[in-house]
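Chain A, query sequence.
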Amino acid sequence: MALIELKRMAQGKSSTLSHLYVNGIFACYLLEDAIRKTKVPGKTCIPEGSYKLLLNTWGGMNLDYRKRYPIMHKGMIEISGIPNFKSVYLHIGNTINDTAGCPLFGSWYNLVNDEFEVYQSRLAYERIYPVLTRIVAAESVHLTVTNQHL
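Chain A, predicted structure.
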């Protein structure tokens, strides 16, 4: 059984820098909204926990990603079963302005004006998405989310 982990490592003013691990191996950086005790819609990262990953082929961003990646796209990688959240996908983006609670892929990061940003998001997505979709299509898998060094 595959082990997929999101480990939160550092916080900016309104951003959180995380690491994504697949079977114990660092895969890429992730950018999330701030960790908050009380949810602020569109500005809060998902809570710690274990959540099922699935391929969502019907909603949200599928049309855009199908156009951008006609051969590779099999569906959005959705993090499901999160209390008080819906339609949370792992996707492309660089700043917290590109997310509303969804983790964004990044190849590297920087801290700009006390906010984390990730870069080469498309490259990270193109590298990690096929790995994750193979795992999600083959077995029931969960994403474990933990706050590490915060």
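The first strand starts at residue 4 and ends at 11. Residues 4-147 form one domain.
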